[in-house]
Every structure is written in structure tokens, then in C-alpha cells.
Amino acid sequence: MTEQTQDGPGAAPEAIAPEATKSRRPDLTSDPIGKLLIMLAVPAGIGFFFMIAYNLVDTIWANQYPEPGEAANMTGAALGRSFGPFFLMQAFSIGLMQGTTALVANSLGAKRGDQARHTIAQAMVAGVLVGVTLLVFALFIPVPGVGGSFIKLYYFTLSSGNEEATRLGLAYIIPILWLSPFLIVISVFNAILSAKGDFTTFGIIQVAAFFMNLILDPILVFGGTPFSLYGLAVDLPDFLPELGVAGLAWATVITQLLGALVVMLVALRTGILRGLKITEFIPFWPLLSQVIGQGVPAAVNMLLIAGGFISIQFFVPEIVKQTGSVLLQTMSAADAAEAAVNGYMNAARIEQLLLLPVIGLELALISIVGNNLGARKEERIWRVYRLGLITAIIMTLTATVIQFAGHQLFPSLINRSDETLAVSSQVLSISAFLLTAYALIFINSGTLQGMKRPVFAMIINGVRLVVGPAVVFVIVSIVAPGNLLVFWLGYGLVAWGCGLFAMWYTPGRMRRVLARELNTPST
């Protein structure tokens, strides 16, 4: 089967590619929907599983340094607070990738290979500008009226002025910030593979990165200092330096750079950039505005997710420091704050693992819907939306049972502090019943993203992750100060409200978009 992606005399690279290469690539506009969801979602889900497992390995080692238990709460909390700026970097990367994927998939579905190639070039220009701006803003621009960098102010504020917690956070995040421009640009190559329906490469790279990180983390964190994990004593050669939490960052830098290099090479081999001209990198507003129009809402959506984690990392320690908090019976206010942040982030890592199949489905939907919208195949768009929704609900109901059954066991494998475990267990026991609500949000948002309507995800996540928790925090502080359980219950009500609204809103929005797109003559 030949996939034509260029108009006129310029034949698409696929037209001259070897038959073996073409046969491995799914046709997103004609292959059976169920088969496509499996072919795309499973590799993407596996890739994200190992990506979250990668982060979980970092979390486990952070909770072993300098020694397991309460002593490691500050290190674990520092890593948890780093999730915000780390996710900020990923927000621009993923936003650019998702926006570019939707545009390129739409162009390929409409057989406009030249436009797809030009879009990719413009996305690279946008990536360079965003990456360099982010690095300069975080590290080199002083905070007006305060002095020092914005990233230092971030850690100092979230840790309530704790100098050691601030130092640990900076030791982790600074090496990663230097990596940000490169990773944001490389996300465009990831978008090429996603638009082509290739999630297998992503999965393989994440598996390899996980095992490499599994080896590098303890070596770089402990160096020649003896350590133990789950009763297993390890003594590395004395000449290795003990980098502490910074070792986790350098392990990430090494593995991500190697993975990015592989993604770039595989994307170039697809042939989609064949015939690329240097002039196509000159900013061209009609296309650049589309990349920005798709990428900014997607990036803002990811920023809101990061903002959600940051806001909860502020609300949770503030609640446990209020009169009436159970943690204050055994800990100082400062130690209670560190234990609460660490416990919440440990639970969040576990929750993310169980949501990975749904994330894989969401990515598959963006590619399939985007291609079929470009090919003007309305019925296939509705079929993949319905099947994706049903599959996601079944998956999350199963995950609910697993998470609730293991709400005490799972976090005990990460940290041994009684107070930290109590927070993690409480979070997991409640959030287990929110997984289906998250699925409704993800699937509906992903479908609209594939239809080049990314703003909905931005709005719904703004309510779910920032506005809603802030309102709940104020209410809890007045009605039940110090009661984390009431906060989590209120957070759950917000999540279910957003999920049910997404279910009601999306079908009507899809009908309006399809009526407009399919009644417009194809370019």
C-alpha cells in the first residue's frame, strides 16, 4: 500500500520507500479503528509507563538519601518540588509536540506533504525561541525588587524559606534547565513520528532510558558511599563522587540526550523532510501562527497541570501546619510540611502509573482523529471517539480496584516514615475513585485536540487543577483547618464535575467542528 503525501510532481518519500517499510506503517485513514487504537495506544502506553517508572526510580532513590525514613523526607520533598519546573520545561515540549502532531497529521491525511514539511520547519523555529527564552528567564533574569533568579525564588517560596530545601532543589533542577532548549526542539521530531502513527520508537527509547537510569541513579547519587535498598547492601568503588540529589539530575541529562538523538535519527529516516529547503526555516506567519495557535493552548494546558502540582504542593503543607493537623502531634511544623509534600508526590507517581493506558489512548486519538479530519472521514472520527471512551472507562474502573487495594502497600515501597506513608495512603485511597473522571477529561480533550481545537483542554484543566483546588483550600482553611481528608474530598468533587462536563460538552462541539470543516472545500 502506497501512502501519497505530496501533491503534484514531487512524489512523497513513501512512494519510493521500500515495501517492507511501508507495510509496517499503519494507515490511519483506512485501517480498522480497533486495530489502530491497539497499534498506537499500546506502544505509547508502554513508553509512558517506563517514562513514569523512570521518574518513580528517581523518587525511590531520593527517599533513600542520605538514609531511608524521615531523614530522606527533605530530599524527597526537594525532588517533588522540582516536578513543577521540570514539568514547565516538558509543558512547552509536549505542547509543541501535540500541536505539531495535529497539524502534520491533518496535512498528511489531506495528502499535502509539502505543507507538512514546511510546518515542521516552522515548529523547529518556534522550539528554538521558546527553549532559549525559558533558560534565560529561569536562570539569568533577576527577580525585580528581590534579586536572585526566578528559579531560586520558586524553591525558597515553596519551602517557606528553608535554605537547605532550596539548595537541594536547585542542585537537581539547574542541570536539567540547561537541557531544556535541546529537548523542546527535539519534540518536533517526536511529532513527526506521532503524526505517522509511530509510537513504537518512543516506547523502545523509554524502556532503554528506564534501565539506563536504573543503573546510573545509585552510582551518581551515592558514588563510593555504601548504601542499601530493601535490605541489599551495596558498596561502589571509592573513586566515584557522591553527587546526592544532583546525581539524579545528571542521570536524567545523560539518558534524555541519548534518547533524543535516537528520535531525531528515526524521524529523519521517515523521509518526510526530504527536499527541505533552508528558506522554509524563515519565519512564515501563516504557518507559524498555526503552530503557535495549536502549540500554545496545548502548552498552557500542560502548564496548568504543572501549576496544579505546584498549587497542591503549596496547599498541602499549609494545611498540615494548621491547628488540628494530625502530623503536628508527632512532628514540628517544618518537618510536617516536608513529610506532606513527599507523601503527596509519592502517591502522585503511583497514580500516574495506573493512568498510563488512558494517556496512551489520548495520544492515539490525537493522531487518528487528526488524519481522518484531514481525509474528511466523519464516521471514522465518531467511531474512534466512542471506542476510545468506552475503553478508557473500562481501564480506569480496573485501575480503581488495583489502586484502592494497594493504597497502603504501594507507598510503603518508597518511604518508611509513618507520617509520610499516612499522607500517601490517604491520597491514594481517595484518588482511586477519581481515575474514571480523569479518563473522561483526557479522552474528550484528546479528541478535540486532534480536531485542532485545543482550547477546551486548557480551560478544563485550569478549573480542575488551579481554580478548583484553590477554592477548596480556602473553604477547608475556614471550615476544617488542618484536615487533609476534607481537602482531598473537595478536590475529588472538582475532578468529577470537570469530567461530567467534558462528557456533556464534547459531542456537541464535535458536531459543530465537523459541520464547519466538512462543508469547507478542501485546499
What's the SSE blueprint?
Layout: H1 19-23, H2 33-62, H3 73-109, H4 113-139, H5 150-158, H6 163-195, H7 200-222, E1 227-229, E2 232-234, H8 245-269, H9 285-320, H10 333-374, H11 378-405, H12 409-412, H13 418-431, H14 435-450, H15 455-479, H16 484-518
Antiparallel strand pairs: 1-2
Helix pairs in contact: 2-3, 2-7, 2-10, 3-4, 3-6, 3-9, 3-10, 4-6, 4-9, 5-6, 6-8, 7-8, 9-10, 9-15, 10-11, 10-13, 10-14, 11-13, 11-14, 13-16, 14-15, 14-16, 15-16
Account of the protein in words:
The chain has 523 residues and is mostly helical. The protein has one domain (27-518). It has 16 helices and two strands. The protein has helices spanning 19-23, 33-62, 73-109, 113-139, 150-158, 163-195, 200-222, 245-269, 285-320, 333-374, 378-405, 409-412, 418-431, 435-450, 455-479, 484-518, and strands at residues 227-229, 232-234. It has a two-stranded antiparallel ribbon. A hairpin with a 2-residue loop joins strand 1 (227-229) and strand 2. The longest helix has 42 residues, at 333-374. The protein is globular and about 65 Å long. It starts with 18 loop residues before the first helix and ends in a 5-residue tail after the last helix. The model is unreliable at 1-23 (pLDDT under 50).
Key traits:
single chain, disordered N terminus, mainly alpha, two-stranded antiparallel ribbon, 523 residues
